[in-house]
Give the backbone structure.
Amino acid sequence: MLEIKDLHATVDGKEILRGLSLSIKAGEVHAIMGPNGSGKSTLSYVLAGRDGYAVTKGEVLYRGKNLLAMEPEVRAAEGVFLAFQYPVEIPGVSNTTFLKHALNAVRKHRGESELDAMQFVKLLRETMKKLGMSEEMLKRAVNVGFSGGEKKRNEVLQMALLKPAFAVLDETDSGLDIDALKVVSDGVNSLRAPDRAMLVITHYQRLLDYIVPDHVHVLAKGRIVRSGDKSLALELEKSGYAAFAKEAA
Amino acid sequence: MAVAATPSAGGAYLERYADARRRLAAGSAPWLEGWRRAGAEAFRGAGFPTIKNEGWRFTPLYGLVEGDFSVDAPAAPFDQSRIKGVTFGREAGNRLVFVNGRLRGDLSSLKQLSPGIELLSFAEALASRPRLVEAALGTAPGLAGHPFAALNAAFAADGYVLHLAPGARSEAPIEILWIGSGADKPPVYHPRNLVVAGNGAHATVIEHHVGLCIGAYFSDTVTEIALGEGAVLRHCKVQDESREAFHLALTGARLAAGAHYDSFVHSAGGRLSRNEIHVALEGRRAQCRLNGAYLGRGEQIVDHTTVIDHVSPETSSKELYKGVLDGRARGVFQGRITVRPNAQKTDGQQMNRALLLSDKAEIASKPELEISADDVKCSHGATAGELDDVSLFYLRSRGIPEAEARRLLVEAFLNEVIDSVALAGMRLTLERNIARWMAGPA
């Protein structure tokens, strides 16, 4: 599904990713753990195509295609999804309008017919019901006045609607209390599927109690220094990142 | 390029159109001709304002001063079905249509005027209600010493007159459509409009200015509004002139106690447009709201100037202007708020926000507060910014193509002020205008 090879990337001229390689197959959930400044968010933004993140070396193949050559909206339409660590507030755009535009843009790209207002609202209601979300969130502007938990649930809702093949969850646990974390994780788990891969990026092991990964990687100074199964996360929780930082040096 | 506008340019302008003035004078009552002559003399003295004049620093009148216009230009033939496309359909039961500033009775319709409401052209009113016109003319704030009010007076021939008896309420909005349509020579017209509302009267007036031609024309409009105690006037204006047009509009409103003037202006057309509103809050608890949504691109200059005079206690004014500027367009916002010594408990709020879509676009904001009372609440603010990169990326990361994402964000920016328009049909028109504008070239 996703093949990252020797990826180097700079932000403001400073090299953040320094030879990161990772291979993710359909149906797998990978976790990347790392301390602050290790390059976790940079990786997620590079994959989603944000401006200002310059890839200087290496490549990313998504379903065999050069992901880095695609505009952000093409990546999304091709099935790549980034759940933001800090979902963006957009005053003046209603959440419903936003979701409808997004879904129809993606459907159009996939050669599917666009949904009219009635069809869309029906799908939206069904999806929200499955995720246990209140419809009140639809009336407000995108993420404006949302609590931390609501913002993350709104990300999960977008994911559920857009049905990506590959989703990156960037620090989805940040800013969530334990109840909210559970709700969001349930939402994510309900979207696990044999034809869908996920990359869960997190600082803390806690999230991985809820979203249990198949593979865990430790990121330090812009490269993966250790890979293992979910027990690696527990090991990290005990020993801390210090030991791994040395390995990266 | 410096504009060689000196006071003599005023005299030269008057001479150029001396024939038209003579034709106007023939058959006019002495008082009217005296008033026009006073306007002409005032304009001869003042001339066209230049960027050296207070209030015109950011609004050069390139192309206007040296323009060769025709006062009585015949309109180029236009497809009348296009009128349908620019009016508000069922929301407008009463409509006056002016072509090059002259009433076209054949295109107008008055079918649902409520009792106590008179709507007629300025030319008709001079014949049938001369006392009403004479009493109202030239009394609005902001007109004295204004060069374009003087120029307008010198040539005023037509316009609309709306008279509301005390307590009269217009159920359907009153729509005024202004069509600019040049044939051989670019037309110039000087509409003089009067709105006189008795105590407790209510009305909604929608004005739509469109160009049904490609070329230039010059519209120099003066609208005088007098609201009696507790009277309410909603005044919506869509300025969608042709891209070569000069649109100068001066509105002066005088409010008695408890009266409410609610103005919304959408400015999108014209090579040069200036919408200037003066409001005198003369009676206790009089209030006004002046809102605007403007769009500029190419070389357009889009000027909004407001002057609010809080004369009496407990008066309030709220202003919100939001604009989107692309290309090399220039937006101008000048807002003066005066609070007289007696006007305690005044509430004055003013805000101008501009969204700049290109690095060549610019906005000049000039707030001026002159406060002579001590127990008042006044604020002003101005912001200029670009589209937010992070928001744009967020939308694109959900599959929304860049152009559509930009349009959503621009609409979102303007929504705050568009939402203040009470008429749903008007909001739809505005939303369509904005969407069409976004689809156009920079």
Chain B has ten helices and 21 strands.
